[in-house]
Each structure stands twice: as structure tokens, then as C-alpha cells.
Amino acid sequence: MTLLVISPDYASHLLPLAALAMAWRDRGERVVVASGPATAGIVDAFGYERRDLRLGRGSNPGVIAAGAQPPDEGASLRGFFRATEQGALATLRYQAQERLTDLMWDPVGRAAETARIVEDLAPDQVLVDHLAFSARLGLLSAGTPYGDVVLGHPSALPVGSEVYGVPPAWPVAIDPDPSGLEALRELCRTVSERFTDEWNRAARTLDPDHRPVDDAFAEHGPLVLYNHPSELVDDDRRRLLPPHRFLGSARRAEAEDAEVEAWLARGRPFVYVSFGSFLSVRGDVLARVADALRAIGATAAVATGSTDASQLGDLPRDWLVRGYLPQVRLLGAAAAAVTHGGNNSVTEAIGSGVPLVVLPFSTDQFAGAAAVEAVGFGEVLDPNTASEQQLAGALRRVLDLPADARRRLDAVAAAQAARPGPEVAFEALASRPSATSAVIASTSPDASR
């Protein structure tokens, strides 16, 4: 059996997809990853084969640097970072305005290249990042079924009256101005219309019989795999979802790190801190988090990413501070975590039974933070306004989580340990027709009988 995994050239996208593919690899099946060159090292580390497939103008092997990007992508990133300093609505407006170039880069060319790779490999099953829109167009035009993996918060695939780019829920600490929120909604509707026009034009080029869709952001494959715990999704939204499975999380195996293992062997409780590969550029917020941790006398493991550790002040000698740290391993031992609310961080923490202090900056982080807050698995603060004292208070509270929340969080972690996300994905795809048989059926003269 051959599994094809299709991912944009970003570590935060490829890592969970590669973790899902471990269920195939560990059964001795062939796994081939189609992605860009920046993440080739990740593919090699998992022991997979690779096909080159660039799906966007930017890339990120693990820690982002605007200066290492093509000029237009670097300028876009710098604009994004500036927008995060102005707050939630400014950031979401900026992201909406950038969306067309971010999501539909050379759609016909990328779709055709995806179809060529599928034809060459003849995979039995396909996993694709939901946000790899041009690749999904290629699969659609080739008649190839696939597992549509929503790696972010489930609202990355809008349902009902939701508009892509507008959070369906907000945490209490972030209360956007109503007029500003309505302006954002109108902007996102306009972007959705333009994006859908682009989708339909590309699809017609690939397949003249294509039937236009009303909202390309709401399109999905025959089976949607949400990389998210079902316990964080309310019943009203669950009723609107397409055919799906919740994976819980896609925690990956990480190579043993001798320094980390020696640090953990001391057995002291600690707080894990990371703002991911993009938002780690916000050293001002990381510095406030470090101040709050020192104020409560906590030990910490801090992944500084793009921020120089010197910006965090005098660091206690018992802290573990590096640009990059093995997140899954450390979450497996942490007492609490501080995060920007990226879906990988949230799902991996909850899958490890770790309560969170969430400081959301952008995109689906607001909805993800609201879900964590709603179920009592953590606290949420505004990263731009939270003081050292407020951060310290939130840290104390999550380190002493109420008994009921602690029990429910432990139950979620135990359920994921018993049935990990990769196994759920494997079982879900195994129960459906293979990609190869579906293509043969769709091209057979007798297919309509």
C-alpha cells in the first residue's frame, strides 16, 4: 500500500501530517510526502520518501525569519508581525487582505503538478492539508478521493453562517469593537467571493465540466479529519459538520535529546512556554511571560524561536531555554504550558493532560482559545495588554486546576493515549475505497452502470 501525504512547505503543517502517517509507516506501508524543499529534513527524519511540490511562495522549516523568505513573502510577514502588535482585529484584517496570494498561488500549475504526482505514484490513500487548496483542486480534477485534514481549529472549514477569517467565538479577555467586527466580516465576505471566483476559474481550466461552487472556503473532501479533540467542540457546531472523524491530536515521536532528558531527570515541576514558529517573534510578550514565571518562582522550559534569549532578562539557572525544543516530549512532563494558541500546541497539550495559559494573536487561535476557556482547561489573556501580574495570576490558577477540570482533562488525555490520532486516521481511510480503485472506477466505461 502507498500513502501519499500532501503538505505546504511549513513545519507546523507537515509535522502533524507526518505524525498521522506513522500509522502507515509502522505497519510497513510505503509513505510518500509531497511538499517543498524547506521541510525535506522533516520528511527524512520520519523515514518517508519525498516528491517535490511547492504549494506557496513562502516556507518555514521550523523557526521563521522574514529575511529568509522571498521579498514579497518577507514583506508580508513583516506586515503581519506589525499587525499583531495592534491587536486582534488589525491582525485579522491584515490576514484577510493577504489571503488570495497566500492560499491560491499558481493554482492551475500546482493542481496539475499534484495530479501528475498522483498519476505517477498511483497511491492507495491520500492525506492532504485542507489549506492546500491548489493541491485539493488537483485531486478533485483527477477524481482522486482523499482524507481532508483540518489541521487548525475546526472553524478553518466554515459551516452554517460562518465566514472564513472571522472567529466564530471569542475568549472573554478579547472583546472586539462591534463596528470593527462587522467591518471585518464584510471584508472577509468580499475575500471569500474573490477566492471562490479564483477557485472556480482554476477548476474550469482543469475540468471544463466543473460545477461552480458558492463558497470555496466551505468546500471539503469526502472525509474530513479534524486534528482536534471532540471535547472542545460544542453540540450546536457538531451538528453542522460534514462526514468526519475527530483525531484528538497528532502527537509525533521525537528524537531523544540528551540535554532535555538530563534536565527532565531532575524531576522538578515546570511550565513549558512556546509561541510556535511564527509568533515567537513577539519577544516583548515572551519577556512578560518570563517575568511572570520568575514572580511565582516557577521553573520553565522556554522555546524562544525567533526571539533572542537575551530579551527575556536574567534567566534562572534551572530553566531550559533554547531556540527550539522537543515540544511533545516536554509537554509529556509539564505541569502547565503557555502558548499562542496554535492548534498543534493546544491539541498536543490537551493530549498530554496539560492545562494552558493561551495568548492568542491571529487566525483560528481566538476560537481555539475560546474553546479551551469554555471547557475549563485553561485561561486566556490578551497578549498585548496582559500585565506581569495578570499572567502570574493565570499561571497560578492553571497550576492548581479545579478538581473537576483536572479530572476531565485527564480523561481526554487517557482517551487519546488509548486511541491515538494516527490510528483513528488509519481506520477512517481504511474503511473507504482506495484512491486507486476510485480513479479506475471513475474512468471505466462501465462506471455509470
Automatic annotation (TrEMBL):
Gene3D superfamilies: Glycogen Phosphorylase B. Coiled coil: none annotated. InterPro entries: Glycosyltransferase_28 (IPR050426), UDP_glucos_trans (IPR002213). GO terms for biological process: antibiotic biosynthetic process. The keyword Transferase applies. Keywords: Transferase. One of its GO terms (molecular function) is UDP-glycosyltransferase activity. It comes from the Bacteria. The keyword S-adenosyl-L-methionine does not apply. It holds the Pfam family UDPGT. PANTHER family: STEROL 3-BETA-GLUCOSYLTRANSFERASE, STEROL 3-BETA-GLUCOSYLTRANSFERASE UGT80A2. This is Glycosyltransferase.
